[in-house]
Design goal:
Layout (H helix, E strand, L loop, with lengths): L12 H7 L7 E6 L2 E6 L5 H9 L9 H9 L1
Antiparallel strand pairs: 1-2
C-alpha cells in the first residue's frame, strides 16, 4: 500500500467493513506504542460536535413555538 502525495491511503474494504467505517465516517488518528492508529471518532460528525458544544449555552428561555413565530415573522 502506498501513500499518495496528498497523504491519502485506501483502507481495504474488508478492514473498513470490520471496523464499521462507512463513507462519511469521521475518524481520528493517534500514536499508540509507536504505531499510527485510526479509529472512529467518538465525537461523531462535525455537526454533532457543534451542537454538543452549544448545548445549554442559550440564556433566553423560549418554546419551540415562540422561536418558530420569530423566524416566520
Amino acid at each position: 500500500m502506498r501513500i499518495t502525495s496528498k497523504g491519502q491511503v485506501t483502507i481495504p474494504q474488508e478492514m473498513r467493513d470490520k471496523a464499521g467505517l462507512l463513507p462519511g465516517t469521521e475518524v481520528e488518528f493517534a500514536f499508540e506504542d509507536g504505531k499510527l492508529c485510526v479509529s472512529k471518532s467518538e465525537y461523531g460528525t462535525r455537526g454533532r460536535r457543534v451542537v454538543e458544544r452549544m448545548r445549554g449555552k442559550g440564556s433566553i428561555r423560549m418554546t419551540t413555538d415562540e422561536i418558530m413565530a420569530l423566524t416566520r415573522a
